[in-house]
Specification:
- The protein has 311 residues and is of the alpha/beta class.
- The protein has a single domain, classed as Rossmann fold (3-Layer(aba) Sandwich), CATH 3.40.50.
- 36% of the residues lie in helices and 20% in strands.
- It has 9 helices and 8 strands.
- The chain has an 8-stranded mixed β-sheet with strand order 1-2-4-3-5-6-7-8, with helices on both faces.
- A hairpin with a 6-residue loop joins strand 1 and strand 2.
- Helix 4 packs across helix 5.
């Protein structure tokens, strides 16, 4: 299917706003660029939000809890959410609207996590925070109004990397208990260059130069990118992982690795609901001001999570 006309318009706008040279952006420029992009996530959600902190290995971790309307005293499924940004950008603020929309669509009490970013905090700091946050939510579910037996872990882009790693950690350690994982445009493989990474290497939203720069800022020198904590697709053990909801986009550089992970999990007997969205681009789910498909995919995710949580 051809590139969606509205998605093409978005890419044209992004290309026009990009600097004329391919010089590697500074960390501050990378963070400002993502913050501007996330302003297209114009969506309203009827949820209450409260901020808090939880203990982490590097100090307190900030989080934002989104609570959809439920009957007083009733617990809801929980959703631990990790924002995207290549492990170097993004925050609970940049992804506030997306997180709120996911909470409303899924009916979950959603905990959006402010994990540590590189290059100030290199690998595995973000992973350590993600694991700590998930364990905290699992252990303190009752006080958060969450049903511990219905815990979902998810994220978008690099946040989906963290979600996949947390689920693999939980499998290897038999805890915490995770019902399902929700991976949106996940970044899952830095070991090999896939056809989609080659085809869309100049993508204005997430080009190969940015992916490589983010990885260089994230990893200490000498770290093997084939490590499953960096490239979850390379994990040797996936049988027994939580049910997976995976959404990829046809015109996304990381499309193939997301599709391959869905196939790998299915082959291992994991329950998988996977959609590759025709004509769409990376991060399309957060572009509601331009792309009608953003609202549709959030509604679809909501239906999928509710169905799994009600089993």
């Amino acid at each position: 299917m051809p590139l969606d006309p509205l998605a093409k318009r978005l890419l044209t706008m992004m290309a026009a706003a990009a600097p004329p040279s391919r010089i590697r952006p500074t960390i501050e420029e990378r963070r400002q660029s993502l913050a501007k992009l996330m302003q297209f996530a114009r969506t309203e959600a009827n949820v209450a939000a409260t901020d808090g902190t939880l203990p982490g290995p590097g100090g307190p971790i900030a989080y934002r809890l989104y609570a959809p309307a439920v009957d007083e005293g009733e617990t809801a499924p929980g959703f631990v959410f990790f924002h995207g940004g290549g492990m170097v950008a993004g925050s609970i603020e940049t992804h506030d609207r997306v997180a709120a929309a996911l909470a409303e669509a899924t009916g979950c009490r959603l905990v959006s996590v402010e994990y540590r970013l590189a290059p100030e905090h290199k690998f595995p700091a973000a992973i350590e925070d993600a694991i700590a946050a998930t364990e905290f939510v699992a252990k303190n579910a009752a006080s958060l109004g969450i049903d511990a037996a219905r815990l979902i872990v998810g994220g978008d882009s690099a946040g989906a990397t963290l979600a996949a790693v947390v689920c693999q950690y939980a499998l290897d350690n038999a805890a915490p208990d995770i019902l399902a994982q929700c991976l949106i445009c996940p970044v899952l493989d830095f070991e090999e260059t896939s056809p989609s990474r080659e085809a869309f290497a100049e993508d204005p939203l997430i080009d190969q130069a940015t992916l490589e720069a983010d990885l260089a800022d994230y990893l200490p020198e000498g770290t093997d990118p084939a490590d499953a904590r960096i490239s979850p697709l390379r994990a040797s053990r996936v049988k027994g992982l939580p049910a997976a909801i995976i959404h990829t986009a046809e015109f996304d550089p990381v499309r193939d690795e997301g599709n391959a992970y869905a196939s790998k999990l299915l082959a291992a007997g994991v329950i998988v609901e996977h959609t590759c969205h025709d004509g769409m681009v990376h991060n399309f789910h957060a572009m509601g001001a331009i792309l009608p498909q953003a609202k549709l995919v959030l509604m679809q995710i909501g239906e999928q999570v509710r169905r799994i949580a009600e089993r």
